[in-house]
Write a structure and sequence with these properties.
Length: about 130
Amino acid sequence: QVELTESGGGFVQAGASLRLSCAASSHISSGSGLTTGWFRQSPGNDREFLAAYRWMGGRIYYSDFIKGRFILSRDRSKNTIDLQMNSLNTQDTAIYYCATGRPILSALSLVSMYTTWGQGTQVSVSS
């Protein structure tokens, strides 16, 4: 079973940018049928979906509230799924997780559809 590791979190001021990476312990092929998603969870809140990459076909999906601030991409040289986060604000403070699973298209945002999770990386934004 593939293991996931997130990196790139940190403590920044409002307006700054961060780039998170999700690395898998083994190669994920485009034929695997897997989807890699990015989620976040802040204290007292449910884990919420941010974006997903479907390895078959390479399509990317975003939650509506991201509104273009976050950009997901695949780094082929590193075999990572990266989340570029711009114009960060204090409400973006959370633990950010990546996960893999086989969700159907209509269920991309459901936490329960993802079976493998990383340990998370903390993002803290100060005003």
